[in-house]
Amino acid sequence: MHKQIYVNLPVKDLARSKDFFEAVGYRFNPQFTNDKGAGLELGDNLYAMLLSEEFARTFTPKTLIDNKTSTGGWVCLSCESREEVDALVAKARAAGGSIPSEPQDYGFMYGHGFEDPDGHHWELVYMSGMPPQE
Prior knowledge:
By secondary structure, the chain is an alpha/beta fold. It has one domain: Roll (2,3-Dihydroxybiphenyl 1,2-Dioxygenase, domain 1). It has 3 helices and 8 strands. The protein has a 4-stranded mixed beta sheet with strand order 1-4-3-2. A 4-stranded mixed beta sheet has the order 5-8-7-6, covered by helices on one side. The longest helix is centred in the middle third of the chain and has 13 residues, at 82-94. The chain is globular. The relative contact order is 0.19. The mean pLDDT is 95. Residues 3-127 form the VOC domain. It comes from Roseateles saccharophilus. This is VOC domain-containing protein. Pfam families: Glyoxalase.
């Protein structure tokens, strides 16, 4: 099976996006970062490639959507605790991100999220168990 994941996300202002994610507490891999894109390290073998819109257009003939008005998908990341979920959302808010909804508590799973400056939705979840069987 797969050993790594790279989620490619177009961004309008690469420098602004890098500043945002660094303020949230993430790092960038300098080997995969230049003026066209930045390799955002999300965990062991988990990456988001933030690509300038101009560079992103070289990979697809399709129109890039405006993530502030449309949803093409979202990134969901697991966290070690509810506190980590809430701390990351608080850091994103303080860095200028928006919070599209209230936290969701399903008993076995707790989630909350934020939108980055380009409107990409990042959902953070902590799972304390498995869902109940019906």
